[in-house]
Amino acid sequence: MQRYFIPKANWQNNTISIEGDDAHHIIRVMRMQAGDKIICNKLDASAAICEITELNTDSVTAEVLEWLESNTELPVNVTIAQGLPKGDKIELVLQKGTELGAYAFIPFQAERSVVKWDARKTDKKLIRFSKIVKEASEQSHRNRIPEIRQAMNLSQLIQEGQRYDIKLFAYEEEAKTNEFHSFSSVINQVKNDDHILICIGPEGGFSQEEVTSLKQHDFIPVRLGPRILRTETAALYALSSISYHLEELGGTSCQQ
Amino acid sequence: MQRYFIPKANWQNNTISIEGDDAHHIIRVMRMQAGDKIICNKLDASAAICEITELNTDSVTAEVLEWLESNTELPVNVTIAQGLPKGDKIELVLQKGTELGAYAFIPFQAERSVVKWDARKTDKKLIRFSKIVKEASEQSHRNRIPEIRQAMNLSQLIQEGQRYDIKLFAYEEEAKTNEFHSFSSVINQVKNDDHILICIGPEGGFSQEEVTSLKQHDFIPVRLGPRILRTETAALYALSSISYHLEELGGTSCQQ
């Protein structure tokens, strides 16, 4: 069944007014008719099966038939701070990170990021990125659309970190040191609704200064498996692992 | 340090003769000199730090300095049977599946695969795919290069399944049935070196006939988290989860 995210303002009790691209999709792409059913999501994570009652040239009206119980959100809120990678790799992270349950994304202007974003480029990108993330949310039947935050440099990211219950950064050198923190021991300790920040370095990795600074500000270095992952794969490993630990292994926490 | 996979035939005790693309890379791309160090992998999964002793126009000689202990292979052998997806999505699965530790890949001509492979197209593709997989192995510091098998249809895949200790297929409808098999309960039971086959449907999913047939032949249906994943993301979730369970959670198996 097709799913659409409809802004709160368009909901009046159980009647929903659908406009813009979503209306276009219903009317011209899917060619739906009165009586057809769709899923409508409020942006606060609730969702309902709705029946289309009216179709106009540019708008559609639907009525809630049944609220949905199922929750397709991760039990914790994972924000991915992605070191800006080359080319359009960040779009892969946004799309698949959304499929895999990310709460939000922060583009991180890392020291070794080859690509530099300026304000003008960023606005255009953010429009495209928002489309990618909205579409991925709908297609993966999520109850909310991840937020894409403004790009941050290291000091902004460190400041941002103060708002989180747990903050990590992917650092493959970690496994070789004595202060080894395992990723699973961190995930083992999370509580429902915790806000977790995971920072991923760009292709060149984190610089020594970034590593020192992150550690000084209580960002926990973790490895993500024993293999070197490309920058755009790391977030996908992290999100899949968190989902697996909390949604597939179930309520029983695993002691190491 | 640069890593190269050198065929067994080129190893004479501790002396390695490097030719072809790898020699070109060392001589002209990296511009190495005698005394420089590289990592050489034998295709049987052993690896050594080597010193370059001689460079010619088209070949390089190196000597083993030190064998490496670290194993970057998954403790189980996971073969991904990927329902042929549209476009070049399969390249994403091959590249990232390799980063994430896959043992082998089987392109699967599923009933709902939009793209159909013929023998002529397939040979050209296999050359390109082999390059992708070799490069991903080197970059992720794996000890072996995953094999890309010939494409199979359903009956060939079912026959192939007989060679595995465990065979699964990703089926999101599974979580809604009474015979729910959790992915983690399956992973919980694997033993080191087991051969696991994981089948992923194409964009349209598995057909009802495929589902029935796979179940009849002891392929276990599992869901991969509560969100719908795109065909090219499913294998990445599965491999990340297996790595997380067996390499990050450690030897202690988790009881559900």
From TrEMBL, chains A, B:
Gene3D superfamilies: 3.40.1280.10, Hypothetical PUA domain-like, domain 1. The keyword rRNA processing applies. SUPFAM superfamilies: alpha/beta knot (SSF75217), PUA domain-like (SSF88697). Residues 18-65 form the Ribosomal RNA small subunit methyltransferase E PUA-like domain. InterPro entries: Alpha/beta_knot_MTases (IPR029028), PUA-like_sf (IPR015947), RsmE (IPR006700), RsmE_MTase_dom (IPR046886), RsmE_PUA-like (IPR046887), tRNA_m1G_MTases_N (IPR029026). It is found in: Cytoplasm. GO terms for molecular function: rRNA (uridine-N3-)-methyltransferase activity. GO terms for cellular component: cytoplasm. It comes from the Bacteria. Residues 73-242 form the Ribosomal RNA small subunit methyltransferase E methyltransferase domain. It catalyses: uridine(1498) in 16S rRNA + S-adenosyl-L-methionine = N(3)-methyluridine(1498) in 16S rRNA + S-adenosyl-L-homocysteine + H(+). Keywords: Cytoplasm, Methyltransferase, rRNA processing, S-adenosyl-L-methionine, Transferase. Its EC number is 2.1.1.193. Pfam families: Methyltrans_RNA (PF04452), PUA_4 (PF20260). The keyword Cytoplasm applies. GO terms for biological process: rRNA base methylation. Specifically methylates the N3 position of the uracil ring of uridine 1498 (m3U1498) in 16S rRNA. Acts on the fully assembled 30S ribosomal subunit. Belongs to the RNA methyltransferase RsmE family. PANTHER family: 16S RRNA (URACIL(1498)-N(3))-METHYLTRANSFERASE, RIBOSOMAL RNA SMALL SUBUNIT METHYLTRANSFERASE E. This is Ribosomal RNA small subunit methyltransferase E. It comes from Ornithinibacillus bavariensis. The lineage of its organism: Bacteria, Bacillati, Bacillota, Bacilli, Bacillales.
